[in-house]
Write a structure and sequence with these properties.
Number of helices: 16
Number of strands: 32
CATH class of one domain: Alpha Beta
Largest sheet: 7 strands, mixed
Helix content: 10-25%
Protein name: Xanthine dehydrogenase family protein molybdopterin-binding subunit
InterPro entries: Ald_Oxase/Xan_DH_a/b (IPR000674), Ald_Oxase/Xan_DH_a/b_sf (IPR036856), Ald_Oxase/xanthine_DH-like (IPR016208), AldOxase/xan_DH_MoCoBD1 (IPR008274), AldOxase/xan_DH_MoCoBD2 (IPR046867), AldOxase/xan_DH_Mopterin-bd_sf (IPR037165), PaoC-like (IPR049648)
Bound molecules: dioxothiomolybdenum(VI) ion
Length: about 725
């Protein structure tokens, strides 16, 4: 099915099942420990040996020599694979550095060997007996230094919003120079780690030349392709299985070393092999959100109308990598006739930078929305009003392009009302509660809505059970549930009457989980398959397809009513389809999601301890398929945004080129006790341009702008403007 224009009313619009706060289908399996994660498929791959991945101990240089003798002789060791014995390996489409290094080393903890043994302890002990001599080379690890000579670089890949290296509209320099009120400020965000709960893990099993991987991955088809490419085998010889994924946040978009090392280890040991990256390995071995340096200039007239806006971002990555697209929201969020956005990319020899939840917008808004707060103060305007005054209903770079839906103003106004914003004292440092300084902050949330083609298969058996199969993943987002709701709505059966099977590359290729496109795109694929199923059912029953209704487990047309199961009496039915989108669709109208974040903080006047007291998000993100699951996503994003504002910081060792705090003791993230009260409101909205589902993504919108709202609240509380994240107490001095 091709979607290239609004379809008007369709069966989904009945909203008898869609739009209801249905409990997560996978919830009971997760809370009872019976949902198997990658490392736990012991029954599927019995007798698996354990692989332990050895990471390079230098960041850049060569392996001069590697001595495996002692490790090979260690108890239980079955095989050791290094670049010398792995055979020819290619780099995957989605990896910047090779997943098995040697003799060249591209970054710290790049995998250089996998040791396979009968037990995990034996593999680890043997790995510690490997002796490696390195010839260390000089690396580039200092972003600020490297940016001094870094070239402009655009990006159109991955799941971030595309942005060219430089974009100009009007005459920014002239307009900024003559603006009566202006700001020129630079903000920095540090490297961030996904630190998802389930580590990167894979069990690999070969049967002849057929490879099966039970793995933790967000994008099954990308993964299947990259495993095949890396190992130099045909794609159809690879099967990926990931029914449950314990978080990803972008860290599992792409195949990482756990999968490749498990496959190589299993081939060498002639046994299934399971590999989980240890937490320290995962932080330096896999990807992270790159640090940024962002300069923002805004000029406005005295009424608060922006006349000039520039956002220039710099980030770094390994050779061949891409920039963090931190300017993308600035291209679309506010009006202003004279505009400039640009990105610079420095070469760094740190581990690979890549997508992390709302790549681009998450760090970009941490800068832009503080700059907006600073401008509002200079103008003597309320920060909500300043944003409202500069709202735009069209793409400010291409004014003949409208937003398909844009309720940013309502998000901000409703949020202000609900939060009690009018009680905020605009004078910083003026509200006290005992020894605590109290402040409120606001920020806009913005994230684009990307459409990805997605396929599914729907089956109806003689008992009337509907089964949906797609390689879509549920990374903790509620995919099982919204897909069941979609099929239930389309075929008129209860949610419990739908069996959903996900995360297997033998199923039709879905959109996968990334870029907050998963919810709308994967259910749209299920919608397409269900439309085909409805036709088949109508045909079997001899119904007129134009007026047939599927309600309450029955099929109705005219004055005839037949149980749905009847249609499968003569044999089970199966329907498969893919939802595709015309290129023009996203060009004609800009599809984005919006929100307003409101935060109240308390900063201890004596110790500088910062506590978040309450958070509110008001979101406009198309039709909300399941408010309960969507709320989960948004509060998760808000919590992650709070971490980005106050805690999270991968500390770079600029001498040796690695992230020092490579575990959960050193890399701090918020816990429940850090966030006492969170509220999420969704505006009633349906976007007919997004798909027949009329839904959009929320999984990334939740994090967008939160960091700035916290920072602005901290400023309101203390009068100290911190422009270098995270806002730790030392920065109040
Ligand atoms: Mo993407 S950073 O996995 O949502």
């Amino acid at each position: 099915m091709k979607f290239d224009a609004p379809t008007g009313n369709n069966p989904i619009d009945r909203m008898t099942v869609i739009g209801k706060p249905t409990d997560r289908i996978d919830g009971k399996y997760k809370t009872t420990g019976t949902a198997p994660y990658a490392f736990e498929h012991n029954d599927d791959a019995p007798n698996a040996a354990y692989g332990y991945v050895v990471g390079a101990a230098i960041a850049k240089g060569r392996i001069a020599s590697i001595d495996l003798a002692a490790a090979k002789a260690a108890p239980g060791v079955l095989a050791i694979v290094t670049a010398d014995t792995a055979g020819k390996l290619a780099k995957g489409n989605f990896n910047t550095a090779k997943l098995l290094g040697g003799p060249e080393v591209d970054h710290y903890h790049q995998a250089i060997a996998v040791v396979v043994a009968d037990t995990f302890e034996q593999a680890r002990a043997a790995a510690n007996l490997i002796r490696v001599d390195y010839a260390r080379a000089k690396g580039r690890y200092d972003l600020a230094e490297a940016l001094k000579t870094a070239p402009l670089k655009g990006d159109s890949s991955g799941e971030g919003s595309a942005a060219p290296p430089i974009d100009k509209v009007g005459d920014f320099a002239g307009a900024f120079a003559s603006a009566p009120v202006k700001l020129d400020a630079t903000y920095t965000t540090p490297d961030h780690s996904h630190v998802m709960m389930e580590p990167h893990a894979t069990i690999a099993s070969w049967e002849g030349d057929q490879l099966t991987l039970w793995t933790a991955n967000q994008m099954i088809d990308w993964g299947k392709g990259d495993v095949a490419k890396t190992l130099g085998i045909p794609k159809e010889k690879v099967r990926l299985i990931a029914p449950y994924v314990g978080g990803g946040f972008g860290g599992k978009l792409f195949v990482r070393s756990d999968a490749i090392m498990a496959a190589l280890g299993a081939r060498a040991a002639k046994r299934p092999v399971k590999v989980a990256l240890t937490r320290p390995m995962s932080i330096n071995n896999t990807t992270h959100r790159p640090a940024t340096v962002q300069r923002i200039r805004i000029g406005a007239d005295r009424t608060g109308k922006i006349t000039a806006i520039a956002h220039e971002s710099g980030s770094g990555d390994l050779p061949g990598g891409g920039p963090e697209t931190a300017v993308s929201q600035t291209k679309l969020l506010y009006a202003g006739a004279n505009r400039l956005t640009s990105m610079r990319l420095a070469v760094l020899d740190l581990p690979e930078g890549n997508a992390m939840r709302a790549p681009g917008e998450a760090p970009g808004l941490m800068a832009l929305e503080v700059a907006m707060d600073e401008m509002a103060e200079k103008l003597g305007m309320d920060p909500v009003e300043f944003r409202v005054v500069n709202d735009t209903q069209v793409d400010p770079e291409k004014p003949d392009r409208k937003f398909s839906q844009r309720q940013l103003v309502k998000c901000l106004r409703d949020g202000a009302e609900r939060f009690g914003w009018s009680a905020r004292n605009a004078k910083p440092g003026s509200v006290r509660d005992g020894q605590w300084l109290i402040g409120m902050g606001v920020a806009a949330a913005f994230r684009n809505n990307l459409l990805m083609k997605s396929a599914a298969r729907v089956r109806l058996d003689q008992a009337g059970v509907v089964t949906v199969e797609t390689d879509m993943t549920d990374i903790g987002t509620g995919t099982y549930t919204i897909i069941a709701q979609t099929a239930a709505e389309m075929l008129g059966v209860p949610v419990e009457g739908v069996v959903v099977k996900l995360g297997d590359s033998s199923f039709p290729v879905s959109a996968g989980s990334g870029g907050q496109w998963g919810g709308n795109s994967s259910t749209a694929g299920v919608y397409a398959a269900c439309m085909k199923m409805r036709e088949q059912v109508a045909q079997r029953l001899g119904f007129n397809a134009t007026d047939v209704e599927f309600v309450g487990g029955q099929v109705r047309s005219g004055n005839r009513t037949v149980a749905l199961a009847e249609a499968a009496k003569a044999g089970a039915l199966s329907a498969e389809d893919v939802m595709e989108y015309g290129d023009e669709l996203q060009k004609q109208q800009q599809q984005s999601t919006f929100g307003g974040h409101f935060v109240e903080v308390a900063v201890n006047a004596y110790t500088g301890e910062t506590r978040i007291r309450r958070m509110l998000a008001v979101c406009a993100a198309g039709r909300i398929l399941n408010p309960k699951a969507a709320r989960n996503q948004v509060i998760g994003g808000m919590t992650m945004g709070a971490g980005a504002a106050l805690m999270e910081d991968l500390a770079v060792d600029k001498r040796f080129g690695f992230f020092v705090n490579h575990d959960l003791a050193g890399y701090e993230v918020p816990v429940h006790a850090d966030i006492p009260h969170q509220e999420v409101i969704f505006l009633d909205e349906a976007d007919p341009m997004s798909s027949p589902m009329k839904a959009k993504g929320v999984g990334e919108l939740g994090i967008c702008g939160v960091g700035a709202a916290v920072a602005n609240a901290v400023y309101n509380a203390t009068g100290v403007r911190v422009r270098e994240y995270p806002i730790t107490l030392d920065k109040y001095l």
